[in-house]
Structure formats: C-alpha cells, structure tokens
Specification:
binds zinc ion, 327 residues, Nucleotidyltransferase, domain 5, alpha/beta, disordered N terminus, 2 domains, 5-stranded mixed beta sheet
C-alpha cells in the first residue's frame, strides 16, 4: 500500500510477530492503515533483529509523524518490560529478549515501544475502534486453539503483578478435569477450545457413533465443521457444542460476578460460528447472572476487522500513550 500524503496527525506502528510472518502497519489515530509491510519470520535471532529493524527503518523513512510502536506477540510477554518470557515454537529464540531494547536503536528518540499478548492487543483494538468503544468495563475472549482473554476494568486494561492477568483460558472449571498445557487441571480451555472440540469429535468417530461426523472417515473434523454440523442439527455434534458452550457460559458468568462487565466481546476463529454459539451462550450467561446483576450482559462478536493484528497492536501503543497521559 502506498502512503497517502500529506499526512496530518500522529501515526503509530503496529507490529505483529507471528510464527510464519511478521507484519507491520502504519496506522493513524482513526484506526486506518496508511502503509503496510510484511516478511517471513526469520529462523534466527540475528536475522530477526536485522529484518525487523530494517522493516521499521523503512516505515520511519516514509512517514514523519510516527510517535509510538505497539507490538503483538504470541506466548507470554511481560507488558511492563516488553521481555518475551515464554515463546515455544519457531520464535523460541526470542525468549528472554526485551523487544523495546532490541528495536529502540532504529527508532527516533522518545518513540514509545510497548508489547503485549494477542488477546490484549485485540482488546486494545476494540477499545479504540471496535466493540469496546465508550466501554469502561468489558471482557474480551479469543476463542481459538486455546482461549485467550483480556479485561478492561474501570477504563484500564488489567495486567496484574507479572503481566499474566486475564488468562481466562486457565480458569479452573473442573477440579478433577484433564491436565492443561499450563500445568493445572480442568482449565476452561481443556473443555472449550478448538483442540478440545476436535478431540471430542475424534472420540465420537472412534466410538463409531451414528453421526455425520463419520462422513469425515479417518480425518478428524475441524472445530468449524463440528459447529457447522451442530447448526445442521446433527445430534452428536450438537451435544459436543452444547456441553462445551455450557461450561464457557458458566465460566463467563462467574467472571461477570467478579468484574461486572458491560459487555463480553468474543474474537478468534470459533466466534465465527455465529448464532449456534452465541444464542446458547447468551442464555447460559443470562440465567446464571440476571437475578443478581439485574441486567442482561451484552455478548457480541469483535467488530474490528484486523485479521493480521496490526491495527490492534497500533491501538496498544495508543492505549499506552493515554495511560501515560493520565498517570
Ligand atoms: Zn491451563
């Protein structure tokens, strides 16, 4: 994309560090992308530093008004320091790296650099340009291979002592449940996540139950296919979806009592299932909370169209600037 000039107002860089690609965008204060770059994720730390610094230098050379850089990254990021604490997979070489320190040398003096995990990046995007505009209290859940979460409380994104706040996927929903990747047992994402729903479908196929899931032969249906079959009325797929959704709704209801949110925002690939997920989820949350809260909590899908995460990353920088301004 070619930058439109002359540019007025400040610009932010949103950077998304992914396992296969690194994407960057220059975003204005209205959330519009004015320039983008992308590259394949390098295989070593030295190559990563060189490639990402080069990418930032290109954007800075093309735009005069860049004031801050927001970075979204998978894994565990310490948002207070921008240090990558844990990042399994192709980007493991970033562990213990402080992203702000790595990138600062190529940025103009005084440029703010912040980094955080994908779910908080998604919430920041919704706060400025999506479903959480005008909200002071909201929960964001990203429903994908796991369950990510971020919390807006009294107008601020909660981060906690070590930056781990909001990991709703690891809320215990069954003390005797199955082991979770985090070391706990019975976490929400061991019951509701694409991985779990797919493994439930595989179990049904393996048991030879009478279901259209069997049409997939030895291939495990994807989570989206299970939701499709549930929508079409397949009893086994519907049962898998109903049980998982009930637990998700119960967990969100518990969070609603703790955090009293105005709305629940759902992102991630599973949220694309639409009403087959949203309607039973709303009903589950409502019956559990209405008598006490005496209101209905809105449950909505994320509004910001930001599949690459770069707009949310730019919003993260904006959120950091507003925090600094009000501190
Ligand atoms: Zn867990």
């Amino acid at each position: 994309m070619v930058a439109s000039k002359p540019e007025s107002g400040i610009l932010l860089i949103g950077l998304d560090i992914g396992g296969t690609q690194i994407k960057a965008a220059c975003v204005n204060e209205s959330g519009s992308v004015v320039d983008t770059r992308r590259l394949n994720t390098p295989a070593s730390l030295i190559a990563f530093r060189q490639a990402v610094c080069g990418l930032l230098e290109e954007l800075i050379a093309s735009h005069a008004n860049i004031r801050a850089v927001g970075i979204g990254c998978k894994g565990l990021i310490n948002p207070h320091t921008s240090q990558v604490e844990s990042l399994p997979g192709t980007l493991h070489y970033l562990e213990e790296q402080v992203l702000a320190q790595m990138l600062a040398p190529v940025l103009p003096t005084g440029t703010m650099i912040v980094a955080d995990n994908d779910a908080r990046v998604a919430l920041a995007g919704e706060m400025f340009w999506g479903a959480a505009c005008q909200c002071r209290n909201a929960l964001m859940l990203t429903l994908g291979t796991g369950v990510g979460g971020a919390i807006l409380s009294d107008g601020r994104i909660l981060r906690g002592t070590t930056g781990a706040a909001g990991h709703m996927g690891h809320l215990t929903v069954d003390p005797e449940g199955t082991l979770c990747i985090c070391g706990n047992r019975g976490c929400l994402e061991t019951v509701f996540s694409a991985r779990t729903i797919e493994s439930q479908a595989f179990g049904a196929i393996h048991r030879g139950v009478d279901s259209r899931l069997l049409a997939h032969g030895s291939k495990v249906p994807t989570c989206a296919e299970v939701f499709d079959l549930a929508r079409q009325g397949d009893a086994v797929a519907s049962d898998i979806v109903r049980k998982a959704t009930r637990v998700l709704g119960a967990a969100i209801a518990g969070l609603a009592f703790v955090l009293d949110p105005e709305k629940i925002i759902l992102g991630g690939q599973i949220s694309e299932a639409g009403d087959v997920l949203l309607e039973p989820l709303r009903a589950e949350i409502t019956w559990r909370t209405r008598a006490f809260l005496r209101r209905e909590i809105a449950v909505v899908r994320s509004q910001l169209i930001d599949p690459s995460g770069v707009i949310g990353a730019a919003a993260l920088a904006l959120e950091a600037r507003s925090r600094t301004a009000t501190a």
